[in-house]
Design a protein that fits this description.
The chain has about 350 residues and is an all-beta fold. The chain has a single domain, classed as TolB, C-terminal domain (Neuraminidase), CATH 2.120.10.30. About 5% of the residues lie in helices and about 40% in strands. The protein contains 1 helix and 24 strands. Strands 3-2-1-24 form a 4-stranded antiparallel sheet, with no helix packed on it. Strands 4-5-6-7 form a 4-stranded antiparallel sheet, with no helix packed on it. The chain is globular.
Length: about 350
């Protein structure tokens, strides 16, 4: 198992990566149109009857409304092996709790974010020996590879304007951050470090990218770094006593949530983009990974194994009121919001 696969296994928590067959994402079955309503039979005119005494009008019940989704977002996409040996993509409707399977591949497919307009989803798939980045429509149709699986590519992230995708690749020998057009064209390398640089996340205004790196070899730890969107101005953001992963910007750009491993304990933390205000949000003896801010910034989705397997949880932005969204005996991981 290569360095990329070990890194991916550590960070994403997915099983069976070494056994992946060629990725062949398949569309979910097309649901046929529902039956058209049958016309009511024509009735003969009824006999004339005297009018009934005048009665007060009955009270009309208010129409039933779907509950308002928490966090200002309508749906989450996540990865799960609930329907087979491989990980596929699923969409969770937060108003109805309905889960829809989006892919049916014969190798692992890992979730990536929705496009800013909510119409497409990025994903990471597996070829014979390497991972690749692809895109599909939000209903799972039209899966299209954006990179060619000749090197290990993963951790895709949309720019806020939807025109570019930042990602991680080993095409130059080690993990570095790249950026390409939304159609996969014009890939350009942004980082040049002998260490591992991976997991890019764009700031909401598109001016900066947060990422993970172990470039500071004096500590041997992974930390969160910031750089300008063109790769200049690299600055270290976290410098705690453990390793930090999975940066995620709040919608207002003021705060970055991330996973931190301190003394063997993995929790979701938050820190202001200027490096102040570090706070542990989960403080749970289980493993808490992969934070994702809701579109309105009031909620954070994340994955946790506090119920014995990986589940998608939702908590308030301050860490209060954590609750299980998926409740499935399989492993559900890597949540991303749809606006």
């Amino acid at each position: 198992m290569g360095a990329w696969r070990l890194l991916t296994l550590t960070l994403i928590g997915m099983a069976c990566l070494a056994a992946c067959a060629p990725a062949a994402a398949e569309l979910a079955p097309t649901v046929g149109p529902s039956a058209s309503p049958t016309s009511a039979p024509t009735l003969a005119p009824s006999a004339t009857v005297p009018p009934a005494p005048t009665q007060a009008p009955s009270q009309t019940a208010p129409p039933t409304r779907a509950p308002t989704p928490p966090g200002g977002g309508s749906q989450l996409v996540f990865s799960s092996n609930r329907d087979g040996p491989y990980s596929d993509l699923y969409r969770l409707d937060l108003a109805t709790s309905e889960v829809t399977r989006l892919t049916r591949g014969d190798s692992n497919t890992f979730s990536g974010p929705f496009s800013p307009d909510g119409q497409r989803i990025l994903f990471t798939g597996w070829g014979l020996t390497h991972s690749f980045i692809g895109v599909m429509n939000a209903d799972g149709s039209g899966p299209t590879p954006l990179t060619d699986a000749s090197a290990d590519d993963g951790f895709p992230a949309w720019s806020p304007d939807g025109k570019s995708i930042a990602f991680t690749s080993r095409r130059d020998g080690n993990n570095e951050i790249y950026v390409m057009g939304a159609d996969g064209s014009g890939a350009k390398r942004l980082t040049r470090s002998p260490g591992d640089d991976f997991a890019p996340a764009w700031s909401p205004d598109g001016s900066r990218i947060a990422f993970v790196s172990d470039r500071d070899k004096t500590t041997g730890m992974y930390s969160i770094y910031l750089m300008n969107a063109d790769g200049t101005g690299v600055k270290r953001l976290t410098a705690g006593g453990g390793s930090d992963y999975s940066p995620a910007w709040s919608p207002d750009g003021a705060t970055i949530a991330f996973r931190s491993v301190q003394n063997g304990q993995s929790d979701i933390y938050a820190i202001r983009a200027d490096g102040s205000g570090l706070a542990n949000l989960t403080r749970n003896p289980a493993e808490d990974w992969s934070p994702a801010w809701s579109p309105d910034g009031t909620q954070i989705a994340f994955q946790t194994n506090r119920d014995g397997n990986w589940e998608i949880y939702l908590m308030n932005a301050d860490g209060a009121d954590p609750r299980n969204l998926t409740r499935n005996p399989a492993d559900d991981q890597g949540p991303y919001w749809r606006k």
